[in-house]
Amino acid sequence: MNTIDQFQCENMELLMEIFDHKVSLKEVYNLKGPASSDYISLSIKLNLLIKEYFEEKTLNLISMSKDELIEVWKQKGFKHLDTIEATQKLDEIIIKYQKLKHFG
Question: Could you tell me the pTM of the whole model?
Fold first, then answer.
């Protein structure tokens, strides 16, 4: 995937929302301090947005790894070392995604 394709896959709306929340969080911190309810609410919202972003990126990575696995399998067969390595890579990503989803 080239740089242009990666840029087009980015959820720019979500990134802008994260950016805006970071700016707002800094402003609220400077005006009201970290113990204010506004600051705490914004912090929680920012954390959820960042978690959503990472989840989206991980799902994209799973999809790309799955496509890569299918291509390797078609070219080299089911028992080839490259196919096995691609399967292990996909498994690792899925396990990390499950940890993010359940513990993150």
Answer: 0.74
Residue for token pair 């990503």: 93
Residue type, 52: E
Q: List Cβ neighbours of 23 (8 Å cut-off, separation of 6 or more).
A: none
Q: How far apart are CA 7 and CA 21, in angstroms?
A: 21
Angstrom distances, CA of residue 61 to CA of 17, 20, 25, 81, 89: 22, 26, 30, 21, 11
Average pLDDT, the chain: 90
One-letter identity of residue 30: N
Question: Residue 73 is which amino acid?
Answer: W
Residues in the chain: 104
